[in-house]
Amino acid sequence: MAQRTGSRTTRSAIGASIGAVLGTVALVAASVLGLAAPALAHNYLISSTPKSGETLTKLPSRFIITTNEGLLDLSGHGAGFAFEIKDAAGKFYGDGCVTVDGPSMSIAPAIGAAGKYTVIWQIVSADGHVVSNQYPFTWSPSGSFTPAKATDTPQNCGGKSGGTAAAPSKGTTATPQNASLGLVLVIGGSILGLGVVLTVVLLLVGRRKSPTPS
User: Fold this and answer.
1) Alpha-carbon distances, residue 67 vs 35, 92, 138 (angstroms)
2) pLDDT tens string for the chain (214 positions)?
3) How many Å apart are CA 40 and CA 51, to the nearest integer?
4) CA–CA separation, 197 vs 18, rounded Å?
5) What is the bridge-based pairing of β-strands 63-67 and 45-49?
6) How far apart are CA 174 and CA 70, in angstroms?
7) Which of 31, 80, 122, 146 is most deeply packed, by most CB within 10 A?
8) How far is CA 105 from the centre of its chain?
9) Distance, CA of 75 to chain centre
10) pTM of whole model > 0.90?
11) How far is CA 157 from the centre of its chain?
């Protein structure tokens, strides 16, 4: 009778231990997924014209920002989007009229004299969040060029789009590298959790099968 009681007690202990481990793993997994999901949800920059750090010698047909998935343009004319070109003196160029096409937004190119410039961009991500950032480039025209007229503040396309972008959200915009890192962390955490569960189960089963001392 004492042996049966001991056996039932052991089984109960094993069940309780496995349940506790599984509960802990589930909580950890939920926390990791909860932190990773928002970071992976926002659109992130995959290409641009001009490129970050590029020395531009000829104006392209459009200045373009391209992200990883479709942008959310509910107004149909780029409300909430901005594409600013700012020179080293803090002057701005362009009319602020943004065109949104799938994962990209673009603006007619306008720029001043040769020198250092900054692109400041703002998009409405597919998940509805506003994402903004900035990067530098250099304008060094080859041949003759007539600089565009500068303004003290960004233009807003007659109130339809453009205007002053939000403060660049560095650290909150997901990038391909951050997205990959998040995925690795999630997978690694899941594997580690499964390993812990299997180790505990094997240890407990081994103890259960051990002969009882006489």
Assistant:
1) 22, 24, 22
2) 555 555 555 556 555 555 555 555 555 555 544 544 444 579 999 999 999 999 999 999 999 999 999 999 999 999 999 999 999 999 999 999 999 999 999 999 999 999 999 999 999 999 999 999 999 999 999 999 999 999 999 999 999 999 999 877 653 343 444 444 444 444 455 556 666 666 665 566 666 655 555 5
3) 23
4) 7
5) antiparallel
6) 15
7) 122
8) 17
9) 24
10) no
11) 28
Q: Which residues on neighbouring strands pair with residue 118, listed in sequence order? A: 86, 136
Residue among 204, 193, 185 nearest 21 (CA): 193
> Six-digit token pair at 207?
């103890």
Specify the amino acid at residue 132.
S
What separation in angstroms does the CA of 140 have from each of 30, 45, 64, 114?
51, 24, 19, 5
Q: Write the CB contacts of 180 (distance below 8 Å, at least 6 apart in sequence).
A: none
What one-letter code names the amino acid at 192?
Answer: L
Tokens of 21: 């481990």
Residue 67 contacts by C-beta under 8 Å, 6 or more apart in sequence?
A: 43, 44, 45, 46, 103, 104, 123, 125
State the pLDDT at residue 38: 47
